[in-house]
Amino acid sequence: MGFQEDDFVMVNHPDYPELQGLGIVTKASDEIALVWVYLYVDNSERFVHIEFLRHATDEEIRAASKS
Description:
Elements: E1 8-12, E2 20-27, E3 34-39, E4 44-49, E5 53-55, H1 58-66
Antiparallel strand pairs: 1-2, 1-5, 2-3, 3-4
């Protein structure tokens, strides 16, 4: 279950509370376990290890678009 560009993801990093919430993958690679994610919470783009990502559900995407 890899991540592709434009995939909506939920970020949950236990050590960095600022790395939480809905994002979209902006750059991905099959060769490394890091992807660039644009986080909607603070409008920033960050490298995130895939261990802290999961694909966002349609419900999560809808809820975020309403706020």
